[in-house]
Amino acid sequence: MTKDNVSPLGSLEDISNVCNELIKFNIDEKVNKTLHLVLKRKWWDMIASGEKREEYRAQSDYWIKRLVDGEYHGSDKLDRYKPFENVCFHLGYTNTTMTFRIVCIYQGYGVPEWGGGKERVFIISLGERAE
User: Fold this and answer.
1) Which residues pair with 102 in a beta bridge?
2) Contact 36, 85 (CB under 8 A)
3) 37-63: pLDDT as tens digits
């Protein structure tokens, strides 16, 4: 993690620029679809405070089916992601939620302090809070 708690890609603007490149290979028009994800308290608190600006999901069959639109190639340049506009985080299995805009979904290596490891993951880059 960097000094200012930003992704290794840089600021939200830097991530946006990377995502704009990926959009050429993804669905251009988003539909108002919301991705629902359950979080543990640690990750919830980090996202709520603005410290964590990305959420990670393993490149397992389950997440490939939920996030990838069509055939999975294992490369950002070839994969198309489902057109989610928002992500709604649930604190455990409670009714406590918070919703953020999705800047983009891409593949890479997450920040270890934010739950990323040595394996490639799907990275859901978070924009502004939608609530």
Assistant:
1) 126
2) no
3) 999 999 999 999 999 999 999 999 999
